[in-house]
Design brief:
mainly alpha
Length: 135
């Protein structure tokens, strides 16, 4: 299974970041030609915004490499673009699922509260006559 498959199948955002980091480390230490800029291979990843900024930078890098007809750079840059893009997409799916889960929990709680009978207060505060609470 490829790292991109692991990212797509990740169940948590932690897993997504783990696999993106594994990819970056493998490229960083295996890229003898230095085809990926340091702003892409810098670790740690600092959240979804950081990943998105790296992704946006890669789009510009791919465009420049393509204009220079640098096929080797294009291949490496496109691969990184593909991996980070999959990470961004999976993080969004997980975020939406989390929001939906919270919304469902809130709906369920609201339904339970509506279904509960109103509470009548008829408790005595002391044994003395006339100290009963009335609704």
């Amino acid at each position: 299974m490829l790292i991109i498959d692991m990212i797509r199948d990740a169940d948590t955002d932690h897993e997504v970041y783990f696999w993106m980091t594994a990819y970056i480390e493998s490229v960083k230490y295996g890229d003898a030609l230095g085809l990926l800029p340091e702003r892409i291979t810098r670790l740690p990843l600092a959240g979804a915004r950081d990943v998105r900024e790296r992704f946006d930078g890669l789009i510009i890098d791919v465009d420049q490499a393509s204009r220079q007809l640098n096929d080797r750079s294009c291949v490496v840059l496109k691969e990184a673009l593909h991996v980070l893009g999959a990470g961004i997409a999976r993080l969004k799916v997980l975020e939406n699922a989390h929001r939906e889960s919270l919304a469902q929990a809130m709906r369920s709680l609201t339904e339970k509260q509506r279904a509960a009978p109103p509470h009548a207060v008829h408790a005595k505060t002391s044994g003395a006559p006339g100290n009963e609470l009335h609704p």
